[in-house]
């Protein structure tokens, strides 16, 4: 029911109002891209200015008459609003226009339904759709609001509407239970990665910023990437080897958009938690976009909502190949840490700078030392090997071993604690008086 889509595009009239009551007005160009991404065929854009939405039709009576004429002239099958409509407004508009009416949330949900490829993704979209639909059921069942009566028509004491709502609640509960299982499986996966001390780097950013193209470039993968909104819906993970640092997990995530429906944020919480638990966020930004500062702020809003705004973040300004005289570069903050990389995921320019920044940021908490262990400390040597920390080993003349090690600082301190050793004692043993970073 929820994933059947028409084979060809639908003729659609787009409606965008500039409301003085709105703090952040929607972008009409982005709206048109959303409609095209959903497979719609825009035949007209109706725009206007109002101080606040009309309570009954959202638009004023004059604009409503204009819409009625346009629907008749263009034979449009759909009228799409670049705003969120109340269920009663949708119902009133459909009665007046004699065609389907869709609001911004419904449009985004439709795109998500088309893009969902995995079982989990489909469940998440269906949950968001059902939650959205539950407030709009009355639209299709106004003739069944009264209880059935008469011989052979007496029901179980509830209206058709109540039956539908009950079935809907049962389905929502079932999906939530299955998604809870998915969440616990993701938690297990995260815990196992943490036990293996594999850092996770999550790509986040506004939709169509080029995250999947960059992901494919960094991992030599073939994740679906296209110049359209919400091309990626299901999270993908790949293991990447960083020189001198070892393996890290790179995660591609769903793109964000302005005023992302709260129902979607809730439904995709299990997916978005991948970003919230990352060691480092790569905030991918379309450097060529005129809306760049606004898009950055909108991504930050969603990161705040999922509790990921305080995570270490590296800004990645993508698509520099579309900017005249722009060259790849690595920018640093006042403390000298990498804070931004300018590159082109499409051409590969600047990707080596991104790897350089990743190694530097993820390696800041790494211990890279040369230590000397006497023959009596074979257990510590064995633990260092089991942690994949030993880069090279040289035997001494009297049985001692000299080890070049690389491992996370927290792991190193844990191993020393297990051997009842302090850093000072180890330095004394190995004759290494350098500070362990």
Automatic annotation (TrEMBL):
Q: Which domain of life does this protein belong to?
A: Bacteria
* Domain Hflx-type G: start-end pairs: 199-366
Q: Which cofactor does it need?
A: Mg(2+)
Keyword Hydrolase assigned: yes
One Gene Ontology cellular component term attached to this UniProt record is:
cytoplasm
Q: Which InterPro entries match?
A: EFG_III/V, G_HFLX_dom, GTP-bd, GTP-bd_M, GTPase_HflX, GTPase_HflX_N, GTPase_HflX_N_sf, P-loop_NTPase
Which amino acid positions bind GTP, per UniProt?
205-212, 230-234, 252-255, 318-321, 344-346
Query: Gene3D superfamilies in the record, alphabetically?
Result: 6.10.250.2860, GTPase HflX, N-terminal domain, P-loop containing nucleotide triphosphate hydrolases
Binding residues annotated for Mg(2+), in chain numbering = 212, 232
Compartmental location: Cytoplasm
Keyword Hydrolase applies: yes
Name one matching Pfam family. GTP-bdg_N
Q: What is an example of a GO molecular function annotated in this UniProt entry? A: guanosine tetraphosphate binding
Subunit-level organization = Monomer. Associates with the 50S ribosomal subunit.
State the function annotated in the UniProt record.
GTPase that associates with the 50S ribosomal subunit and may have a role during protein synthesis or ribosome biogenesis.
Cross-referenced HAMAP family, in alphabetical order? GTPase_HflX
Spell out the protein name for this chain. Answer: GTPase HflX
Q: Which organism is it from?
A: Porticoccus litoralis
Q: Coding gene?
A: hflX
């Amino acid at each position: 029911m929820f994933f059947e889509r028409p084979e060809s595009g639908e003729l659609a009239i787009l409606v965008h109002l500039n409301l003085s009551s709105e703090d952040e007005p929607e972008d009409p160009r982005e709206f048109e891209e959303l409609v095209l991404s959903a497979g719609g065929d825009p035949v007209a854009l109706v725009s206007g200015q109002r101080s606040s939405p009309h309570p009954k039709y959202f638009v004023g009576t004059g604009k409503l008459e204009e819409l009625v004429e346009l629907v008749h002239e263009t034979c449009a099958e759909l009228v799409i609003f670049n705003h969120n409509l109340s269920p009663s407004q949708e119902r009133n508009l459909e009665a007046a226009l004699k065609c389907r009416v869709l609001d911004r949330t419904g449009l985004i949900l439709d795109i998500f339904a088309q893009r969902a490829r995995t079982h989990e993704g489909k469940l998440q979209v269906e949950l968001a759709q059902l939650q959205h639909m539950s407030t709009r059921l009355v639209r299709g069942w106004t003739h069944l609001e009264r209880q059935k009566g008469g011989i052979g028509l007496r029901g179980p004491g509830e209206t058709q509407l109540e039956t539908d709502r009950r079935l809907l609640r049962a389905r929502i509960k079932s999906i939530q239970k299955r998604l809870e299982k998915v969440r616990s499986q993701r938690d297990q996966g995260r815990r196992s990665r943490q036990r293996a001390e594999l850092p996770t780097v999550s790509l986040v950013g506004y939709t169509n910023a080029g995250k999947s193209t960059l992901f494919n470039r960094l991992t030599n993968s073939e994740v679906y990437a296209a110049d359209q909104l919400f091309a990626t819906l299901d999270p993908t993970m790949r293991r990447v080897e960083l020189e001198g640092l070892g393996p890290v997990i790179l995660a591609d995530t769903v793109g964000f958009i302005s005023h992302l429906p709260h129902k979607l944020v809730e439904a995709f919480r299990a997916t978005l938690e991948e970003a919230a638990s990352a060691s480092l966020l790569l905030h991918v930004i379309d450097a060529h976009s005129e809306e760049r500062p606004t898009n950055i702020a909108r991504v930050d809003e969603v990161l705040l909502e999922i509790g990921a705004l305080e995570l270490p973040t590296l800004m990645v300004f993508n698509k520099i190949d579309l900017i005249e005289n722009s060259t790849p570069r690595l920018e640093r903050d006042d403390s000298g840490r990498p804070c931004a990389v300018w590159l082109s995921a499409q051409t590969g320019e600047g990707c080596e700078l991104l790897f350089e920044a990743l190694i530097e940021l993820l390696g800041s908490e790494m211990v890279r030392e040369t230590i000397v262990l006497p023959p009596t400390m074979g257990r510590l040597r064995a633990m260092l090997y089991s942690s994949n920390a030993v880069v090279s080993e040289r035997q001494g003349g009297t049985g001692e071993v000299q080890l070049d090690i690389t491992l996370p600082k927290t792991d190193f301190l844990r191993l020393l604690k297990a051997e009842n050793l302090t850093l000072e004692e180890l330095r004394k043993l190995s004759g290494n008086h350098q500070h362990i970073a």
